[in-house]
Amino acid sequence: MVKTRPTLAYLAFAVAILAGLALAVTPASAKKKSKPAEPVVEESAEDMVFAKSFIGKTYDEELPIDGWDDLGGGLVSPAVVSRLRRELKRTGHVIPILVDSRYRLLNYSGLTACTPNESEVEQALGIRINDDARVLERAGRTILEQTRMQAVLITRGSRGMALFVPGEPTVHIPIFGSDEIADVTGAGDTVMATMALALAAGATFELAARLANYAGGLVVMKRGTATVSASELRNAVKREA
């Protein structure tokens, strides 16, 4: 029997890298406290093998999207991501690569986008944003410049989201739904996954961010580690159309 790849794999492939707390985990287990590992700053032979094996797995096993949780354990280091990007480029796979890092946001560079929350941005830059639009603007532009990302989406809890793209005005997106949330477990993962999927399907950064905002607003209204279905997302968009 001849296998066929999903149509999406021909359009684009999104690698969502969640780096910040410890080993490969589910959103629920990410709540467990752990000490972040020492940063990995140099490439190694293992990095090359890991990157190449990931690419081989991706296209041999036809996985159009991957989400990695390396929450500070050192697995998905900046060196590994850099090697992965180069290997993908060398093999002709130009795909979106997104990163979500709790502790090392500024160490990842030249990728498609990052989706830090406001507290992660404050920690990375040593600032306090609060509700100061000018500080937020400087912070977003600084992250863009220092990481050389194509886009930076800062999630701000009840204040919504702010999307920064080089050479374009900042897009401020208000929260979807009520600000009386039930549980924020996995909300950031939901935003990352939705944005990655939207970009893989050909959406612009703004459309991908707005769709991710809908998904995030839906999932925080559910208790525990929850998911958002395609029909829920579709209905949410229709309600605000």
Short note summarizing the structure:
The protein is an alpha/beta fold. It is built from eight helices and seven strands, in the order αβαβαββααβββααα.
What topology emerges from the helices and strands here?
Elements: H1 7-11, E1 14-19, H2 45-60, E2 65-70, H3 78-90, E3 97-101, E4 113-114, H4 118-125, H5 133-147, E5 151-155, E6 161-164, E7 171-173, H6 187-200, H7 205-219, H8 230-240
Parallel strand pairs: 1-2, 1-3, 3-4, 4-5
Antiparallel strand pairs: 5-6, 6-7
Helix pairs in contact: 2-3, 6-7, 7-8
Distance between the termini: 44 Å
What helical percentage do the residues reach? 40-55%
Number of strands: 7
Report the CATH C-level class: Alpha Beta
* Number of distinct helices: 8
In the CATH hierarchy, the third-tier topology is known as UDP-N-acetylmuramoyl-L-alanine:D-glutamate ligase
CATH architecture: 3-Layer(aba) Sandwich
Taking all Cα atoms into account, the compactness measure Rg is 17 Å
Provide the structure class.
Answer: alpha/beta
What's the overall average pLDDT, rounded? Answer: 76
Order of helices and strands: HEHEHEEHHEEEHHH
CATH superfamily: Ribokinase
Oligomeric state of the chains present here:
single chain
Contiguous runs where pLDDT drops below 50 for at least 5 residues: 1-13, 20-43, 57-70
Query: What is the makeup of the main sheet?
Result: 7 strands, mixed
Q: How big a fraction of the residues is strand?
A: 5-15%
Question: Tell me, what's the shape?
Answer: globular
| Spatial ordering of strands, largest sheet | 2-1-3-4-5-6-7
- Can you tell me the number of structural domains? 1
